[in-house]
Amino acid sequence: MNSLSIIVKDNSGNYNNGNISVPVSITTTNPVVSANYKTGTYSSSIKVKLTTNKGTIYYKIGNGAYKKYSTQLTISSTSKLSFYAVDSFKQKSSVKTLTYTINKKSTPKKAKITYSVKVTTQGKNVKRVFTIKNSGNIKGSASTKLKVPAGLTLVKVTTSKAYYSYKSATKTLTFGVKNLNPNAVAKVTVSFREK
Length: 195
Prior knowledge:
4-stranded antiparallel sheet; 5-stranded mixed sheet; Immunoglobulin-like; mainly beta; GH29D-like beta-sandwich domain-containing protein; rod-shaped; GH29D-like_dom
């Protein structure tokens, strides 16, 4: 309980003979703290902003020491965050503890082999250029077969970062790649001639 002393002056400029003491009760409330992220599981790093209605915020992560809060906190791994505030009357908020579980999604490791073909014709000569690309994130292998079209004769096969084999009995060309690096490109050029 506090007291307030009052000195009274009348219209003639006279003051009261003694102080008037009046008991005064001052009521204050404790600070309240909050964060922009609640306890939960997140798939990537989060930036946590702490706020209070008054006073200064102090925080700690895990079992560390409390520090004065000044800017948002980046939480990039599973962590326990504790914080509170103290106002100018030394009144302290309750300690708030939040647990953030960070489960970062990892990119699956796989190869992705794709084929594309460009056909050009010059007179009786027909050329097919196959482009083989690995758009995955690990090395990859793949193969395909090509039957020599009717009316054409296989003349030549050239490769870059690829392999091929040819069975004349079935007129079947097999080609592909082995352990093609991620984002690498291989080429197979097949030349035919019309009969």
